[in-house]
Amino acid sequence: MQFAMTAAYHWLFVPLTLGLALVMAVMETIYVVKKDEFWKWAAQFWMKLFAVNFAVGIATGIILEFEFGTNWSNYSWFVGDMFGAPLAIEGILAFFMEATFFAVMFFGWNRVSKRFHLASTWLTGIGATISAYWILVANGWMQNPVGTTFNPETVRSEMASAAAFWEVISNPVAVSKFFHAVSSGWVTGGIFVVGVSAWYLLRGREKKFAIKSMLVGGIVGLVGSAAVMLSGDSSGIHAAEFQPMKLAAAEGLEDGGRGAAFTIVPGIKIPKMLSILATHKTDGYVPGINDILKGYTDDDGNVIPSVAEKMTRGRAALDALAEYRAARNTDPAGASAAKARLEENVQYMGYGHLSKPEDVVPPVGVVFWAFRLMIGLGMLIALVLLLSVWGAWKDKLGKMRWLLRVAVVCIPLVYICGQAGWIVAEVGRQPWTIQGLLPVNVAISSLSAGAVKTTFFVFLAVFALFLAIEIRIMIGAIRKGPEAIKED
Amino acid sequence: MTYEFLQAYWWVLVSLLGGLLVFLMFVQGANLHLGNRTLDDAQKRLILNSTGRKWELTFTTLVTFGGAFFASFPLFYSTSFGGAYWVWVLLLITFVFQAVSYEFCHKKENLLGVKGFRIALMVNGFLAPFLVGTAVGTFFTGSDFTVNKVAIANAASPVISTWGNCWHGLEALGQFHAVLLGVVLMFLTAILGDLYIINNVDDDNIHAQMRRSIKRLMRPFLVFLLAWVAMLLIRSGFAVSDSGEVSLEKFKYLHNLLQMPVVLVMLLAGVVLVLWGIFKGGFSQSRKGIWFAGPGTVLVVMAVFFLAGFNHTAYYPSCTDLQSSLTIANSSSSRFTLQVMFWVSLLIPFVVAYIAYAWRQMDRNKISSGEIEKTNDKY
């Protein structure tokens, strides 16, 4: 719960960081190419806002790293071997890149050459993007644990070969999550810039600055929107393949079948659409919640056992593990028999921790509505971006004050959209910390509920404080406007 | 590459990161001057802006140090972070505040005022080295935990590492020897902070203050350091037999030092460098003290980690159940993971090179009050 809060809160800041980084980098590139001081000044203004946001992003990021250990100690041991390499690469390649070039970017305007500064601005953004990739490799692995072998000697998942490592880093779930997350960051950065610019135009201020920023921001946002839709589509396919329960919950699909319909809102359905989205075939089989509980046969003819059976086999795996550990030094024959039984059932080991089959169903209502909210807001934002770019290009924004108002409102909406997406991805996979291997209640540390609650409320208070301060500072800086940062 | 080689290699890297982290905590040490009454507000702001350009490096090193520990010795990460909970959470909170303090401090909408965030930076300046030092101190005193890997098959209490008391790490504050290392680190980082400011800021008055501060801090630092080393050399340590059995051995760390002459040389060379840096900073007009004391610090910290982990020693001992103690061999990641990370780690020199290049470009001109008044790009 605490981790969920921190992660969701962290996700408030990351998209804007990714998106604004790109907007700034594009603006500074125009400055270096065209040698027009206007663009330098514009980039500097957005950089001030970027810096405030970046600081809070860092603060919440480190909490996440620590909480892996403090609150999820079992999990840390269980997956340390799988996460190790991606996280080490993230630390070495991405974090230092971000930190070093952020400092150059922020303080270096008058200290380093133009080109070196431009490179630093790009590298800051690239560093942030690379780190997003590696962390999503870790997250993608939790959603679709590939390339792993359970080692009963050490009691954890281990990476055994170069092929396994390659499977982990090229995990299709990680790849589409990465594109989805990064491009949604561009949308966030884009609509943020468009919205703030719209606010200036509504006030009749900073006209040139606002229109040009709107163009750059809008185009970044549009490119992002297109990529979000493409990667969202492939996320859907992956969910169908690896996490059918998540898809069923997002669709509120009790009973599935061939040619399943897509529900827009309860009562309005598009026939066969869900099958098309999930399998790219009109009559593809999509299992519903009940099908998954009872077991079914998928399109490729694989028989998926019922949850009850998976639980039985999971318990058998856990018992075999205990037997193996007890016998390994005294009774080699018994140990190898236990090991054989373990290997036969290990793919369902996580199910052995569940107490009833219904435990595998996530909160359907929440996931269902979050999914609708995400799609609906995403489409609205894409439309606003399109109209804004068109309006700014044709210089017709003066007559489209309603659009400017909607654009301002879109700033909070894009955050709601992002959080809704986070809910679909992370609540939708409950009860699993690692799909099929480790449910949430086994991933924990042995801490008293009181200790966890105390830190939960401390962090909640700290986050509320930081968020309030960040919003106040941003609004203050936006009010003062870009004129305030012009250097004499 | 053998498994043993890879495990040792990663212990060396973790030690190196630990050493760099302590060195870079000059940021924390220098921030203590934000409460120095003999400095005026402009001077404090100069110091704030000087550390403000390096804090992310320290912070990133901390994150990477934690990440490297997680990646190469996950059982330590899960046992210590999940067990000595409050120590890590406290450390975490001070760093969380530090991360936003620079950006928020001089903005008028910040709700807590300039003072509030300066206090946050100072709390971080005191507590970060103290807590890190104390935590490393428990590498030698031992902690109260048990590790049972088969627990994960037990539905009722599936947790592998369990802590033996409800203080969850705060009990380390009652262990004199561990706390002493925390205190040593506090003084050390304060001195490094002074040396860094002398090097990085152009202001004669501030230089004089820093030199005076070094002279004040030097004596208690040396006394505490010697006391900690003396106690280390006479205490019993946690030896590991070839079959992995852990037992107490008298004068274990003294033996380690004598049996690993390289470590002895590192320790002595490190101490000499630190002392030379202190001399340069406190008793001469040189601005280069940090370039001696910093690398010296790295050497000393690495030597301490080597004493804790190498030569058949359990680096994270359990007093409750000796056989639960963590060793380099029983707490590491699998051979293949260590190997992948080995190849990745070959990029480190490249990373260090671009960091050095970037900062050479940035620090060609030192920070002065003139610049801080003129520019918009400041905290």
Report on this model:
The complex is a heterodimer of chains A (488) and B (379). Chain A is mainly alpha-helical. Chain A folds into 2 domains: 2-243 and 365-485, no CATH class; 257-353, no CATH class. Chain A has helices spanning 2-34, 37-70, 73-107, 114-143, 162-169, 172-203, 207-242, 244-251, 273-279, 289-294, 307-327, 332-345, 364-394, 401-427, 449-480, and strands at 149-151, 156-158, 257-258, 262-265, 268-270, 285-286, 296-297, 303-304, 432-434, 438-439. Chain A starts with a helix and ends in an 8-residue tail after the last helix. The relative contact order of chain A is 0.12. With 379 residues, chain B is mainly alpha-helical. Chain B has one domain (3-374). Chain B has helices spanning 3-24, 26-31, 41-52, 55-72, 74-83, 85-105, 113-141, 176-200, 204-234, 252-259, 261-283, 290-309, 335-345, 348-362, 369-374, and strands at residues 145-147, 161-163, 237-240, 246-249. The termini of chain B are far apart. The chains are: A mainly alpha (488), B mainly alpha (379). The interface between A and B is large, with 97 and 84 residues.
Number of helices of chain A: 15
What is the average per-residue confidence, as pLDDT of chain B, rounded to a whole number? 88
- The helix/strand class of chain B is mainly alpha
Please indicate the count of domains of chain A: 2
Helix content of chain B: 55-70%
Proportion in helices of chain A: over 70%
Which band does the percent of strand residues of chain B land in?
Answer: under 5%
How would you sum up the major sheet of chain B?
2 strands, antiparallel
> Tally of extended strands of chain A?
10
Can you tell me the residue ranges of chain A where pLDDT is under 50 for at least 5 consecutive residues? Answer: none
Strands of the biggest beta sheet of chain A: in what spatial order?
A: 1-2
State the low-pLDDT regions of chain B, or none.
Answer: none
Number of domains as seen in the coordinates of chain B? 1
